[in-house]
Amino acid sequence: MISRRLSVDQLRNLVTSAPKDSVHLHDVQRASFAQHLRDVARPTYHRLDSWTVEHSRQAPRGFRWTPAAARRTIGNATLRRAHRELTTLPDALDHEIAARRTRCATGYARPGSLDHWLGALSPAVLALVRAEALTWVATLVECTRGLALPWAVVTSDAYYDLPGARTTLRGRRDLVVVPDERRVLVRLRPGQPGRFAGTGLRVDLLIDALSDASVPAAARVLGIWPEAGIILSADGTLENLRTAARVLVRTASAPPRELVDQAA
Amino acid sequence: MNATLPTIIEQLHGDIQDRPLADVAHAARLRATLADGVARAVGDHLLDPTLIVRTGDVRRGDAHATLASVPGRARGVLVGILVRLLSVSSVTDPWGDALAAWRASSPDDPLRAAFDHLDDDERARLRAEVEAHAATLGGALAGIDPRWLPRSNVRARVVLGPSRVELHDAIDLMIGVNGSHASVCLLDVTSAALTAHDDRVARYHALVQTLRTSRAPRRSAIFSSATGELLVIDVNRDELQRSARDVLDLVRRRVAP
Q1: For residue range A86-127, what is the model confidence (pLDDT) as tens digits?
Q2: Which of A48, A140, A198, B135 makes the best surface tag, with the fewest CB within 10 Å?
Q3: The pLDDT value given to residue A26
Q4: Does B206 lie in the same domain as B156?
Q5: Among B89, B91, B177, whose Cβ lies nearest the Cβ of A130?
Q6: Is A135 on the interface with B (CB under 8 A)?
Q7: Domain spans of chain A, in order of start
Q8: How many domains in chain B?
Q9: Using a CB-CB distance cutoff of 8 angstroms, which residues of chain B are in contact with residue A68?
Q10: Interface contact A6-B156, CB threshold 8 A
Q11: Complex ipTM over 0.90
């Protein structure tokens, strides 16, 4: 695990110094991991991600959309759209929100989804959504400005459904930087890195590797905490992937700490 | 520089030709100054709990927070939300829009519960106040070019060395994007009148932003939505060093027996 102060030079150094040797997860390793999770599977459907690993001692709280919860999805989509349509970020943001509200108005948005929530908002709350998303995307642009390496906003997070384990893994990723044949994942994180931030990054790395069997694991994952001005990185080594797999199995098998406390 | 101007954004952004080169070298020196100063003040033991320096501490010059009333705190929150709304759109119904946005953004905010228990008279008085602040803000924030990428409610938490001292900050509005020249301008909007200590706050914002991004911003400003007063400082190494001294004075007072 490497920690650096946030600057575009440090970001570039961390990308270009990523390990050259790539790791490929084979079918045997995938099957073994799936079997371990099947062994601890709960009767109900389960979703695991870096958040559940980093906050495994807390009982999960009900999710509801807020402008802050929506900023990452809308902000990343805005940056993708701005690159695709060669337009300014504010225009791309307006188009993105309008497109999502149109999906809702035409009945294509599932209840509970972001687009469905956006479709029901008043102009004032929409303005706050716009302010949150613009702040997110501007931060992303600020972090990558002058990087001088090919990068792209990923089209979606990484998902991997474990056969027979009723468990879906979700790996968050915002950007992918491709200096050569290697891939380096980048995540933008709010707040300060916590005690288990490195573990969370390794989990994102593993789920990204599991989600696409046709490509090797990313050479490195970088977590950027703009509020704290810090970058953390974890390499895509077999050791890191194994550590992440063990942590995921442990998290899946342990009930949330608060539930244990309540039972006691 | 002190001024009372109806519009402030263009003044903050200024003439593009006048921008100095970005100062990317001074942040390391500031970090060293602060780390040394904190180590001298704290000694070699870890502070428990963490000593947190906030904007309010810098404004007061001490660490003793005075808890504002529920209407006072709600006014601050609603004015902050209005700044965010005005940074990306126009606002036709300041009270209704700010309330709707507050409800959507902080469903579990305990202050909201207290606000909901205000009586009709307190609520009407608060509404009149918020609408007056909105009128001042609306004129002042007009003319934000979307290309300046307005970011609102930008938070920062900078850790100073291993002694568990943290600098916390939140900038109401930030415009401009870093490049080879210093372009970023910081704006703090206060719903109170400006005081003699507000230059310390403007410097503090610039200091934390420099430590966080390793680049000094171009300007730091404070605008009072109560009076329309504006205070602007051009950020330079002297101002940043002064702010580092302000922070160290504060830390010394906090750890003094």
Answers
A1: 999 999 999 999 999 999 999 999 999 999 999 999 999 999
A2: B135
A3: 87
A4: yes
A5: B89
A6: yes
A7: 2-59+148-263, 67-137
A8: 2
A9: 105
A10: no
A11: no
Percent of chain B with pLDDT over 70: 95
Residues B99, B115 within the same domain: yes
Q: Which of A91-95, A252-256, B10-14 has the highest mean pLDDT?
A: A91-95
Contacts of A67 in chain B (CB under 8 A): 101, 104-105
SS (H, E, C) chain B: CEEECCCCHHHHHCCHHHCCECCCCHHHHHHHHHHHHHHHHHCCCCCCCCEEECHHHHHHCCCCCCCCCHHHHHHHHHHHHHHHHHHHCCCCCHHHHHHHHHHHHCCCCHHHHHHHCCCHHHHHHHHHHHHHHHHHHHHHCCCCCHHHCCEEEEEEEEEEHHHCEEEEEEEEEEECCCCCECCCEEEEEECCCCCCCHHHHHHHHHHHHHHHHCCCCCEEEEEECCCCEEEEEECCHHHHHHHHHHHHHHHHHHHCC
**Co-location of B123 and B23 in the same domain:** no
- Is there a single domain that holds both residue B213 and residue B231? yes
pTM > 0.95: no
Query: Does residue B212 sit at the A interface (CB-CB below 8 Å)?
Result: yes
Collect all residues of chain B within an 8 Å Cβ-Cβ radius of residue A88: 146-147
Is there a single domain that holds both residue B226 and residue B163?
yes
Q: Which domain holds residue B86?
A: 70-140
Q: Please say which residue of B121, B140, B159 terminates a domain.
A: B140
